[in-house]
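User: Can you predict the 3D structure for this chain?
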Amino acid sequence: MNNFTLPRTRLLLLLILLTALTAGGLAFGLRQSQAQSAQPTVAAPAIYAEARVNVGSLNLRTGPHVSYTAVAYLMDGERVRLVGRNRAGTWAQIELYNGYRGWVNARYLQPGIDIVALPVADVSLLGITAFVTNDPIPVYAGPGTLYRRVGTARPGETLALNGRTDAASWVHVYLPDGQAGWAAADSPFLPSSAINDLPIVTPFLDAPPPELSAFYLVYAGPGFLYEPLDNVVEGQTLGIRGRSADGRWVLVRLENGREGWIAGEIIQVAVPLDLSLIHISEPTRPY
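Assistant: Here is the predicted structure, written as structure tokens:
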């Protein structure tokens, strides 16, 4: 019996040893994998390069084509920063020392890197665009200055135009960072097409209404020809003192103690105006 027991014991010990080695190897591999995954991820460096103008005078344009408006010119030897290119790599978007951006023909540049290594920033992909010229343009959440301001378009930036109001007085735009908003149509920019070519955007997308409180005038007498004395806002509580003979005007007392007349059609009373309400003598009509 002992002849069979010994090999079985050795076999059992061998299996235990192999299991321990396998578990140790797995644990080591797991720790190594965790250590590698714990290493910080190094972000790819941003593409940055400079170029030198190698022609006597080089036009700075609002887009990557000679059909775009020339807004400035660069002199031979002037250094600029490269920030983008068109898909063909024939035009480069540059940034001047003052942050002003525009497009130049890449043929007349001596770049520090290959132009095709720059990111594509072709405004032709955006449809109708507008090039911001000299002054910053405020951008609002809705078509009017009473809406909340959501951003600013800087000189040299290119805006994507998405639509307009019915009167073509306001344009729905996208800033370079993707922020959407409204800019006045007479802003200092150069659109690549007529504003009227844009579709009419109604309703005004997701723009919240301007924060306005309706107000109404209180007059010295029961009529619009009397002198205005004060004003009240929507939701304000008034005390009723009397009414005109025809019931169209109501004499009210304001919260500040002043009394005046207000049109009955714009107030809401807690109870119907009683015709037996004491009639107040009307003041002398103005001439």
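The helical segments are 2-38. The two ends are 137 Å apart (CA to CA).
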